[in-house]
Write a structure and sequence with these properties.
Number of strands of chain B: 19
Oligomer: heterodimer
Number of helices of chain B: 16
Strand content of chain A: 15-25%
Largest interface: A-B, 43 and 55 residues
Number of helices of chain A: 7
Radius of gyration of chain A: 15 Å
Shape of chain B: globular
CATH architecture of chain A: Alpha-Beta Barrel
Order of helices and strands of chain A: EHHHEHEHEHEEEH
Helix content of chain B: 25-40%
Number of domains of chain A: 1
CATH class of chain A: Alpha Beta
Structural class of chain A: alpha/beta
């Protein structure tokens, strides 16, 4: 999975800035997407492209349980968030609805990857390749359940092993 | 080896669990509100599914209900649609709803305990991160997203990874319990462990500093567990818990025999161990005031705002975060908290809008007037809290002081209804989040206790409430 990086070099990006509360009444996902990251970066919607990845620091997606946050990001084309760590509800929301991949990265990947870099994510090898800079990093593997929900295509398609 | 309270509740709710696999956990109570449920009900319809246990599912409307005169129509059409949608969904799927005109309407985390729906040892979920509030009763209470709401509606279960255990021990006694409150204890905990300090854990709050607290105060503590990153917060039930729930509208008929069984089981065994521990001594803690844009950015009321260098302890992202926070908040490091002037005061939210919060705040307000430069409001956490407060004459105390006295709802905690800050306005707020834009685009939030908010309203700036006579 290839895409370009939009980098927010800070910790604690909360779901209120990802999608401000006033838009939680919006049910049309395309309209919701036009307000993604509005609280943090009003230019986000004009710069994001289909297939992009967001790179950020610790505790990404903290705060409210609003599933509108990964929905808004995915509906403007974001396929994965690469972060040093995630808040748990955002993390589960991202995979439950198969909206985007929450990928935990190491400090050297965080430091080494820059805005605009082209990245190739290979989940089967737990590898992140920075094509622009020709560097390769390890991603933290998904846990058993998360890997299975992702592979199934979301919570409602996941069926436990019948053994 | 003994078990922690969390482990006991978890184990007693396992439907399926295999080695190295997530567990399918049974859910005893599902609380539903208008914002995170519409897509879940749509999902049920699309797949021709029913609600598995409508009798264990309870709904109310809180996030975007107006807090002004309820005899008037709702002007915001998108809010009106969302509220109407919940009414229709509850009717179609046979779910009990406390609607906008119900005497039991209120913030979902305030009404659950008040109605005796929240019970010790149970599992409770809601599509809202502050579900952790119910942990004050020794319930395992988890905030979930909309996909999981749909999963619980359809199956009354959830696939969960087992969280780690985190003991937060609060030791000592507050010198002035009217001035230094549960809000100050939890803000102090988050300041120390950080906003991600509890990630992947269930916190159990223990120690004299916790058992001393009333149920209303314990709910304030557990409510903000999520601001420390935890999945849930728990406090072992005791006599105060059992008395609180006795005789409420939905308290089970066999309550006394339940209490007998809870007394023996619902506590952490003396030889149990936790994965993580933090100890807070509260003998000398001060009222807390947040200065930044997350709840960890908090300091004592008698301290200056820290410099980004001091706050970050050498972490580059933390430093940048503190610099951006100061810029957003239009504050400078070194400024004394008591020198910060405020424009608005919000006493409300699932953190601090229960009866005791309003009683304590009213003691400061009585016979005083809100500073002429300040616009202040009280939004009770539920219509029942509002009624009880009115029976005590608290409404008159607040109104005489020029506070607005509103109907129940989430209101200015999250800026979904017309109660919002204007860009640049600075608010002393008893809510739980000071994120950028949380209370309205460009609004600046300082998290404080109800007494600190009341004192700020009267004085037009923060004051150390320990200097006031609160008894």
């Amino acid at each position: 999975m290839k895409g370009n990086i939009i980098k927010y070099a800070r910790d604690n990006i909360d779901t209120d800035v990802i999608i401000p509360g006033q838009y939680l009444k919006v049910h049309d996902y395309a309209e919701l997407a036009t307000h993604a990251m509005e609280g943090l970066d009003p230019d986000f919607h004009s710069k994001v492209k289909e297939g992009d990845f967001i790179l950020s620091g610790k505790n990404f997606g903290c705060g409210s349980s609003r599933e509108h946050a990964p929905i808004a990001l995915s509906h403007c084309g974001v396929k994965a968030i690469l972060a040093l760590s995630f808040a748990r509800i955002f993390y589960r929301n991202s995979v439950d609805g198969a909206f985007l991949l929450p990928i935990e990265i190491s400090q050297d990947a965080y430091d080494g990857i820059s805005e605009g870099d082209e990245i190739d994510i290979d989940v089967s090898k737990n590898e992140i390749k920075n094509i622009t800079k020709n560097q390769t990093y390890k991603m933290k593997p998904f846990s058993e359940i998360i890997g299975k929900i992702i592979a199934a295509g979301g919570l409602f398609k996941y069926k436990p092993d019948q053994d | 080896m003994g078990q922690t309270l969390f482990e006991k509740i978890w184990e007693s709710h396992i439907v399926v669990e295999k080695q190295n696999e997530p567990a399918l956990i049974y859910i005893d109570r599902h609380l539903v509100h208008e914002v995170t449920s519409p897509q879940a009900f749509d999902g049920l319809r699309m797949n021709d599914r029913k609600v598995r246990r409508p009798d264990l599912t309870i709904a109310t409307m809180d996030h975007n209900v107006p807090t002004s005169d309820r005899s008037l129509p709702i002007l915001d059409q998108t809010s009106a649609i969302q509220i109407k949608t919940l009414e229709n969904n509850c009717k179609d799927f046979g779910i009990k709803l406390f609607d906008i005109n119900s005497p039991n309407q209120g913030i979902v985390h305030v009404i659950g305990p008040q109605l005796g729906i929240t019970l010790p040892g149970s599992t409770i979920v809601c599509g809202d991160s502050h579900t952790s509030t119910h942990g004050a009763f020794g319930a395992l209470a988890l905030g979930i997203g909309t996909s999981e709401v749909e999963h619980v509606l359809a199956s009354q279960t959830l696939w969960l990874e087992k969280p780690k255990t985190f003991e937060v021990r609060v030791e000592g006694k507050r010198k002035n319990p009217h001035a230094v409150t549960a809000k100050d204890i939890i803000l102090s905990i988050i300041k120390n462990i950080g906003t991600a300090g509890g990630t992947g854990t269930v916190i159990e709050y223990r120690g004299e500093g916790i058992t001393d607290l009333s149920m209303d105060q314990r709910m304030t503590i557990c409510n903000m567990s999520i601001e420390g990153g935890a999945r849930a917060g728990l406090i072992a039930p005791d006599q105060k818990t059992f008395e609180y729930l006795r005789g409420r509208e939905y308290t089970p008929k066999n309550y006394e025999s339940l209490v007998d069984s809870w007394k023996d089981i619902l506590k952490t065994d003396s030889d149990a161990t936790f994965d993580k521990q933090f100890i807070l001594d509260i003998n000398d803690i001060s009222p807390q005031v947040s200065w930044g844009t997350n709840p960890g950015m908090t300091c004592d009321v008698d301290e200056p705002i820290p410099s980004p260098d001091k706050f970050s302890n050498g972490d580059a992202n933390q430093k940048r975060g503190a610099e951006k926070a100061l810029e957003y908040m239009a504050l400078e490091s070194g400024t004394m908290i008591e020198d910060i002037k405020i424009d608005r005061v919000f006493i409300g939210s699932c953190t601090n809008a229960r009866l005791e919060d309003l009683i304590e705040a009213s003691k400061i307000v009585k016979g005083q007037k809100v500073a002429s430069s300040v616009n202040a409001m009280v939004v009770p956490g539920s219509q029942m809290v509002k009624k009880q407060a009115e029976e005590m004459g608290l409404d008159k105390i607040f109104i005489d002081a020029n506070f607005e006295w509103r109907e129940a709802g989430c209101s200015m905690c999250l800026g979904m209804n017309p109660d919002i800050l204007s860009p640049g306005e600075r608010c002393a707020s008893t809510s739980n989040r000071n994120f950028e834009g949380r209370q309205g685009n460009g609004g600046r939030t300082h998290l404080v206790s109800p007494v600190m908010a009341a004192a700020a309203a009267i004085n037009g700036h923060f004051v150390d409430v320990r200097k006031l006579d609160l008894n």
